[in-house]
UniProtKB/TrEMBL annotation:
Transmembrane segments: none annotated. It comes from the Archaea. Residues 6-113 form the HIT domain. GO terms for biological process: nucleotide metabolic process. It comes from Halorubrum aidingense JCM 13560. The chain holds residues 1 to 114 of 139 of the full protein. The active site is at residue 100. A motif (Histidine triad motif) lies at residues 98-102. This is Histidine triad (HIT) protein.
Length: 114
């Protein structure tokens, strides 16, 4: 838990979120400002800004959740594909300093990568 971290507050239930998946290690919830229908964020429950700060077990749990959820998110919204990615660091566009993976459903003809 890090004070003033929005995603830690979601983990702790202090800020509401549309949670779609949860384990002991990770939680996934719908993005509040989705780039596409079903845009989902997958985060470790432990606070760390960078994916490189995660220990191996937590990194593995995060990736396992992403691989499990990606096809599920796609089928739920009828998507044809998905962008799965991480903005790591402010220079890369990371706005929330708690590591997270975006799953952004994509639809044929939707105009290219966001
Ligand atoms: P970043 O640019 O850090 O990779 O992406 C942060 C994402 O978190 C953005 O897509 C933004 O819409 C989402 N986000 C920011 N604050 C909240 C929040 O309080 N709740 C939810 N569900 N998503 C949030
Ligand atoms: Zn945090």
């Amino acid at each position: 838990m890090s004070d003033d971290c929005i995603f830690c507050s979601i983990v702790d239930g202090e800020i509401p979120a549309r949670i779609v998946h949860e384990t002991d290690d990770v939680v996934a919830f719908l993005d509040a400002n989705p780039l596409a229908r079903g845009h989902t964020l997958v985060i470790p429950k432990t606070h760390a800004q960078h994916v490189g700060d995660l220990d191996d077990d937590l990194a593995a749990a995060l990736f396992a959740a992403v691989t499990e959820l990606t096809p599920h998110v796609q089928s739920t919204v009828g998507a044809d594909g998905a962008n799965v990615g991480i903005n790591d660091g402010e220079a890369a566009g990371q706005e929330v300093p708690h590591a997270h993976v975006h799953i952004i459903p994509r639809f044929e003809g939707d105009g290219g990568a966001p």
